[in-house]
Structures are given as structure tokens and as C-alpha cells.
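Q: Here's a chain of 339 amino acids. Please give me its 3D structure as C-alpha cells.
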Amino acid sequence: MIASAALISEPLIVAGDWKAEWRAAFRTAGDLLEALNLGAYAEQLDVDPEQSFPLRVPRAFVRRMRKGDPNDPLLLQVLARQIENHRVDGFVHDPVGDAEAKRTPGVLHKYAGRALLIVTGSCAVHCRYCFRRHFPYAEQSVTPAQWDAALLYLQAQDDVEEILLSGGDPLSLDTPKLAALCQRLRALPQLKRLRIHTRLPVVLPARVDAELIRFLHSLPWNLSIVVHCNHGQEIDAETKAAFTRLRSSGAILLNQTVLLRGINDTVAAQRGLSEALFDAGVLPYYLHQLDPVAGAAHFSVTDDAAVALVHSLRTQLPGYLVPRLVREVAGEPNKTVLA
């Protein structure tokens, strides 16, 4: 019998110490599988211990995985496997045209009215479908030494009324560094909205601490936080509490999901996710077709299947709980809506 999610032996960590939790993350497939009573499944799961995109999974996220289940939908998102090394036509290193959108180090400008800052290459979890798994962060992250160039570019863009903080994960930065960056953004008189894209409140809820909330509450712009959750099982009491704290800052919480074969490509999974998100105070926003990044082809779902899934969701859920099915196409002036 497959056991339910259970307490996994882990280093002693002071409650709320997110940096200690970060350092204690699983870094090898062997350790992760042993913690889940899946050591005997390593060969069946086609594990790849030698990855240029190394495994990293916080223990808070692993606690939500089902012990003894090799098909756990959270495990399959993060387990490095040999199949990632297979070359598949159309799956490339820069699937969404980030290189062409670069304006200065750390600044990507694709769409009218908004620009994106790559503030760090770090993330607490390495999701195997990540569209930036091959991104040259050493060259294209905005560091303090490069803030002047980034700000000069943005100041010259009168139509840029929204800045997106991205990465990696912007909440990987400690709060004083985030505050220093946002203090510089106050020099942009045209800026009206700030958006933060992050997975940390889901995989490492302790990151959403009192210091972060005070900082977010102090921001002068309308704030939206787009979290990234792919399956209802990712939302537990810790996650809900983190979302509640984020909402207390005045931020609007939205979710984006990646459609992943064998993980969340059923009506039941998507319905369960939308309902769990709304119960936790988060509105479903985007359901992304997989960006065709090299190493992730095994997660791909056909457009026909994706559209049929969304049509079925519409028969079961109110419209505000049905995310927009979209694809990002390199060079296009907006996301392409599929359904």
C-alpha cells in the first residue's frame, strides 16, 4: 500500500529560518528517493545523478510527496532523469526568445507597457521543465553593479508602467537586497505596477516571513504576486498560511501553472488545483502550454488535448476558476491564447 505523505527525517532547523531550510534541501536523487522509501525504484525511474541542471528540492516540498509512490505528481516535477538528455527536434535552449529580448544586463523587454528584471539566477527548487534551465544567468542577471544601466534604460521607456521581478526566483534574494533594488525603481516616475513571479511561497513557505511582508506593504505601487503551483497536492497548511501572509501585504495573488503530461493533464487534477487555489486565496490565472526547452519534451501535452481539457473544465467550474490556456511564442507581442 502507498503511504500518505509523512514526516521525513531532516536536519534540526529553527522554525521560520528559511535560509537554513534552503541549505538543507535535497541535492541528490539518491537521498531524495531514500527519504521517500523509493530507493528500489531508482532504476525504474530512470534517475540521472549527473546533471548539469542539478537536483534541488526543499524538504518542505518533499513533505507533501507520498512515500512509496514512484508516480507522485510532485516528485515527477523535480526528479532528474536520463530522459532529459534525449534530443528532440524543436526543443531548444532558449524557447521563448529571451536572448532577443535582452536590452541591458538583467532587462528583458518583450511586451508593450512592461519590462522584466532578471534579479537572480537562484531558485530554491529546480523544476525539470523550467524554461530557463539553460539561461546564462552569469551574463544576464541585474546585479547591484549593473543597476545604473538597467535604470537608465527603463527611465527612457515612458510607456513602461509595470516592472516584473523574475529570475531564478526573486524571493531567493534576502529582503534587504530586494528592498535596495525597489528603492532604485522609485526613480521611475512612470511606474504604476510591480509584479513578482515566484515559486518560493509554494516550495519554501518559510520565506514569507514578517520582514518580507513589511517590505511588500511599504511598496508605493499596486502589487501583484504570481505564484507557481502545478497540482493541488502542493497546497498544504504551510502554503495556505504563506498565501495569507502575502495577502496581508495588500498584494493580489494570481497563479500560473504549466501543463505537464502525467502530472496535471487531467480534468480532475486541474479542477482540484483551481479549487484548492481559490480556497487558499489565489486566483487561477494562466495555464501554460510547456515551453519547448531542451530536456523537457517528455512533459509535453498536445494542443488538442490541452484545449479539450480546458473546454471540459468550463463545464465544471465557474469562469473565474478556469485559467487561460496560453503559449509564449518567441517574437510575438503577447501570449498566444489557445482556449
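Q: Can you summarize the key feature?
A: The first helix runs from residue 18 to 23.
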